[in-house]
Fold CHAT domain-containing protein.
Amino acid sequence: MNRGLTNIAFGLPEAAERDIRRTVELAEAEDLPLMRAKAYGNLGDLAQMTGDAPRSLRHHEQAERTFRVLAPDLVARTRIDRARVMLAAGLADEAAKHLDEALVVLRRRRVGQDLAEAELARAAAALLQGDPSTALELAGQAQRRFRRRGSTSWAELAALMKMRAEFAATHPPAASPPHSADSPDSPGGTSEVVLPQVEGFFLTSARRPAAAVPSRPGRTAAAHAPVAVTVTVPRGAPVRPGRRATPARAAKLAERLTSVGLTDEAAVATLLAVRMAIRRGDLPGARALLDRVPAPTPITPVDHRMLRRLCRAELAVATGSPAAALREAEEGLAELGRVRDRMGGLDLLCGTAVHGRELGELAVGLVLDHDGEHGGDAGRAFDWLERTRAQVYRYEPLPAIDDPVLARRVAESRSLSRAVQQARLDGRPVDELEARLDALQNEVARLGWHTSVWGRPRPVCRVGDVLPHLGDRTVISFVTRGDVLSAVVLSTAGATLVRLGRAGEVFELTRQLHADLDVLAPDHLAPALADAITESATLRAARLDDLLVAPLAAHLGSRELVVVPTGELYAVPWNALPSLHRRPVVVAPSATAWLNARSARPRATRVVLVGGPDLPEAVGEVGGLRAAYPDAVVAESVPGVLEALDGARLAHIAAHGEHVADNALFSRLELADGPLFAHETARLRQAPEQVVLAACSLALSRIRPGDEALGFAGALLASGSRTVVAAVSKVGDKAAALTMETFHRLLAEGEPMSHALAEATAEAPLRRPFVCFGA
């Protein structure tokens, strides 16, 4: 084991894996379960070093199972290790939750080294969440603990984290006023360089220096691979006053990191100095610093690689070479794509996008600016948007790995969810039950990361790939740059870029309309309240129509629309906008996803009808649809529904549901024997081709970097469903029933789904906020 750890420390992954796997064999032969668990933890570190996040998480999970029984004191340590893997995969919220649990235990036990490491990793999560103030405070605490312990290497890592937090606070996006040339360390006579406006991204590393590993009885030391995550920090994030991050300070920190053997982190500090120098207008200094950064090695973390690409791209922009910047972005995103191809589970696939977001935004910004100023090729903007958004939907799903532990945990979650619901109805306390349910759902999510396999990536579509398939359709791809919302309109006539106005105003109107529709949803609303809310919603829908659709009217004609939203626009009920009444509209996460869904060949014939509990007869009685689908399979229980959905042509599900904003894959449908979770649909061997969610608002999604939309409808689409019809806000039972009656009648007459839905929602679009997703 120790030889394996030494090989990890020297960056020799193949030799390390041979030794550690031999450790596992020996531990099994000699019945040493604790040694075996420690070896699995080391395999998790090794997998992280080589960029295999799913395998790393699986090994750490194996280690923790044994630690819970034989060495509870090591569970918190494993939580830290696993949180670092999550950070590398861009899962800041999940990592923060893990670390907060570990910190409670470590502070109670006063475990100095592990506590400081947990604080440092939690600072990284805070930066990724856009909270530099918390990051600065936690990094400072960690640095003081490391110094007291004499852990020089770790103290310098904490210093790097503090500098990143300072950088986040003192280096706003380039569109903000430039810094004074008289600021400390600013070269005399130079001026600021204004880069394309991008969010402030930088890395947070949490390498565990081998020299700092504490020696304690009963524990095998483990070297930890570097973990780095790219973070975005909103403007104006409050940070307590402190020293200002400058190129000179960053360069000196790089020297100190090199002196303690942390060369990867030294490179990150140097790259941070490069970005500062560019913003100060010291381009020769920035180039000299960049030349000091060594070329990446096979085990350099992807975020370090992306930061180096970003620095090269920003320097190219600053020196007037946009073409070189675009090359860096193209090569960097391709490199990131190869990392993504190894991920498992929707969360990991989506989270990886965070590492390339800033490169993508820089490239899209360059192209949009060029097209705006010179009337350039809008098709190029379309191609870059496709490169940078919603990549998860271009993977061919493969059958999931059977995992009996995962199956048991899902069953326990379902049972406990019902217990919580019953306790609420009985007026009993639910805090303890909810805490147990939250822990179970976290475990299910973790297991899903390494037991949900995703298949071969399909190529990203370009304008030339989409045009032959448009027919009588128009694609509208929305994009924001700063506070400017634009749309690239693609039709058989070609691509056109249209500036639409302030993104903030559009997004706020979308939120207000969504709130109005939620209030308007109940069937038995007081007439005066219904009239007031209807008036408000009508005005907001008309205003959104003026901002989003009217400027595009000349390019749309009367054609069917394929809408690729951004951010808040995923919640727009498109057929509720006045000019889109009765117009077929399909919403897709990207044109690539739309084309892949449209190109899929229908194979199945089975129709599935699902009715959930506690619905009015008009909605919940699926027997009324048997006239349209006489051979349909009717299912009610979770196992029966999952079996019926597998390989179905059409599934109509009438059940109450809930979108879970902070854990979208636990969005659920309430069935007769408990909830059916979104992540369970992602584990079907063959997803149903078309799904209608008739009585719930499960079209809502959590929007992640790269406009990756995760939720119930998103899980179905990513798993291979061609079309999902669902509501983007609450919908009343009567309104849902009337919508579905018309919708299925038109489907039975041969109308395509988007056409049938446009007609079915037209009579009362504000009360029927259903949207057709996919193709």
About this structure: The longest helix spans residues 404-426. Confidence is low (pLDDT under 50) at residues 172-241, 343-353, 703-708. The chain has 30 helices and 20 strands. The two ends are 53 Å apart (CA to CA).
